[in-house]
Design a protein that fits this description.
By secondary structure, the chain is α/β, with parallel strands linked by helices. It is built from 16 helices and ten strands. It has helices at 23-29, 41-51, 75-87, 107-115, 128-134, 144-157, 175-184, 211-230, 238-247, 294-298, 301-308, 315-318, 323-326, 334-337, 347-355, 359-370, and strands spanning 3-8, 60-65, 93-100, 119-123, 161-167, 189-194, 236-237, 266-267, 272-274, 287-288. Helix 8 (211-230) links the parallel strand 6 (189-194) and strand 7. The chain starts with a strand and ends with a helix. The structure holds iron/sulfur cluster (2 copies). One iron/sulfur cluster binds at residues 313, 316-317, 320, 322-323, 326, 328-329, 338-339, 346, 348-349.
Amino acid sequence: MKHISVLVKPASALCNIRCKYCFYADVSSLREVRSFGKMKSETAEKMIEHLFVDLVDGDELTLAFQGGEPTLAGLTYYKNIVAFVEQQTKNVTVHYALQTNGLLINERWCQFLKEHQFLVGLSIDGHPLYHDLNRVDPKGRGTFQKVLATKELFDTYGIEYNILCVLTNPLAKEAKKVYRFLQEQSIQYVQFIPCLDELEAKKRSSYALTPQRFASFYGQLFKFWLAELQSGHYRSVKLFDDLMNLFVGGRVTACGILGNCQIQYVIEADGSVYPCDFYVLDEYRMGYIQESGLKELFEQEISKKFLCEKPDYGAFCHSCLFQKACNGGCKRMKDAIYVTKGQDFCGYQQVLTQFLPHKEEIMELVGRIAK
Ligand code: SF4
Ligand code: SF4
């Protein structure tokens, strides 16, 4: 039995807000075609048909929709997707996920998301002040209040969601404020996404996370998180879950955590397919989902080339205690969380050094809470 996941961008790079640090606005600006517009119904139908080609009875498929802002494709697009899936004759379990800025979500969306058990990632940047600094509408106004209203709607409808928080360098100074916000808002699942410099950046932006800030943020967060766990409450922080999965369960639940790229199958609105969300660029186009199944796309030269593009991470990694379990990490996150340019500090190494001595205690506490 296999489980295949794909990322679909039904509205390409289109977005209804203008986050100042948007990495996809940067990536798409480096392509010949910045936005492929909205995915046509014929493309969506062929996409589902071809995704099923290599699946057999008992397999699982996760369709994760993201953008740009994927709700701009409209609710009818998603209803069609579900209908196309239901037309397939193989006995495959399909899971749906959606990453959204939450601005277009209303009761009709909620009814649909609940009915089809979508797991939703809702973007809120950890604290109202910091959210409104960067996540602004086209007129420059903050979007926090509207997104909070969407979160409340999700709570009302019992929709499963996690909060996606872009960890900028300024926000990373505020671990205490962020943790308090999670507690006040009863946010049980959170994922911090390191804010990256532009792909071809000549100098660092003020938003981009540094390894030092990454380490100090998680250092403080870990203390709050562990204290809460010791008091009997478990809150899911994606990085801590990934570390437990890897170092206790031997399972890889984050791309790049072992230092190897994986083919993620990112499907753009025109059906073109790419290996990773960070590299949705013309030179990495593996083909078109309307024309090929995933196995055929995987076998393209470009996939092999992408998987083999592994930079050498230098002396600091070679002498690191965690080298075998990390291998330099994700190549795109390098400057944000791993080794500094001066080769004298690694943010991830510092996090592991603090976290790993507690893994037995964490396992026991989590086990106790689960009973
Ligand atoms: S660049 Fe990072 S996220 Fe992309 S495939 Fe490689 S390890 Fe994964
Ligand atoms: S120095 Fe950092 S990036 Fe390099 S192997 Fe160790 S933990 Fe990984």
